[in-house]
C-alpha cells in the first residue's frame, strides 16, 4: 500500500478579498514534516465562451496584475456566494463584462485551475443566441471586447499568446465539440 502525506495542521497565513492563504503542515511518509502552501478560493467561479451568430467568439482584454500585462480571456468571475448556481454567475458575468445576454447557456466543462496549491473550481459554459447590450463593469474593471474567429484563437493558444487556463480549456473544448 502506498503511503500518502497527511495534513497535521493548517494555519491561516492571510485572509484576502478573493482567496485565503494557508500554511499546511504535512506529515510525509518518511516521518518528516513539510510545509505546503494552500490557497482557498472561497466561492468558486464561472466562465463563458460566448459565440455570436456569425461564429465569432466574444473575448475580453484586461490588465492582469499577477502577470503585469493585458490578457485576452473569456469572460469570467467569482460566484456571489458559495450557494450561487454557477449558471447564474456565468450569465451575470457575461452581461457585466461584455454587455451581451444569452438566449441559450449550456455547461461545456468543469475544471480546477491550479491543483498543486489552490482549490479554485470554474464551471465553463457555452453561451449562444446572444443579444447585444451595455457593459456593467465593476468600478475597478477596464475591459475591452474583441470578437475573434475560432481558428485565430487556436493559433494564439499554440503560439503562447493565450495562456489563461480557463480560456485555453474552453476554446479547445469548443473546437473539439465542433468536430
Give an overview in words:
With 179 residues, the chain is of the alpha+beta class. The protein has 3 helices and 10 strands; from the N terminus they run E-E-E-E-E-E-E-H-E-E-E-H-H. The strands form 2 sheets. Strands 4, 5, 6, 7, 8, 9 and 10 form a 7-stranded mixed β-sheet that branches. Strands 1-2-3 form a 3-stranded antiparallel β-sheet, with no helix packed on it. The longest helix is centred in the last third of the chain and has 14 residues, at 165-178. The chain is elongated.
What's the structural blueprint in terms of helices and strands?
Layout: E1 6-15, E2 19-27, E3 33-41, E4 45-51, E5 57-64, E6 69-73, E7 76-78, H1 86-98, E8 101-112, E9 121-131, E10 144-148, H2 150-158, H3 165-178
Parallel strand pairs: 4-9
Antiparallel strand pairs: 1-2, 2-3, 4-5, 4-7, 5-6, 5-10, 8-9
Helix pairs in contact: 2-3
Summary keywords:
single chain, 179 residues, alpha+beta, three-stranded antiparallel beta sheet, 10 strands
Task: Give a brief rundown of this model.
Helix content is 20%, strand content 44%.
Amino acid at each position: 500500500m502506498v503511503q500518502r502525506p497527511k495534513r497535521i495542521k493548517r494555519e491561516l497565513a492571510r485572509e484576502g478579498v478573493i482567496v485565503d492563504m494557508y500554511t499546511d503542515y504535512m506529515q510525509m511518509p518518511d516521518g518528516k514534516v513539510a510545509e505546503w502552501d494552500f490557497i482557498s478560493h472561497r466561492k468558486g467561479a464561472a466562465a463563458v465562451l460566448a459565440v455570436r451568430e456569425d461564429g465569432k467568439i466574444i473575448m475580453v482584454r484586461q490588465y492582469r496584475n499577477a502577470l503585469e500585462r493585458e490578457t485576452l480571456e473569456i469572460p469570467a468571475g467569482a460566484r456571489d456566494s458559495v450557494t450561487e448556481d454557477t449558471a447564474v454567475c456565468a450569465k451575470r458575468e457575461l452581461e457585466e463584462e461584455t454587455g451581451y445576454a444569452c438566449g441559450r447557456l449550456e455547461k461545456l466543462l468543469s475544471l480546477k485551475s491550479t491543483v498543486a496549491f489552490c482549490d479554485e473550481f470554474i464551471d465553463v459554459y457555452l453561451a449562444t443566441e446572444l443579444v447585444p447590450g451595455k457593459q456593467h463593469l465593476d468600478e475597478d474593471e477596464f475591459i475591452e471586447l474583441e470578437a475573434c474567429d475560432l481558428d485565430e484563437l487556436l493559433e494564439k493558444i499554440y503560439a503562447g499568446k493565450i495562456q489563461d487556463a480557463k480560456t485555453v480549456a474552453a476554446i479547445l473544448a469548443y473546437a473539439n465539440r465542433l468536430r
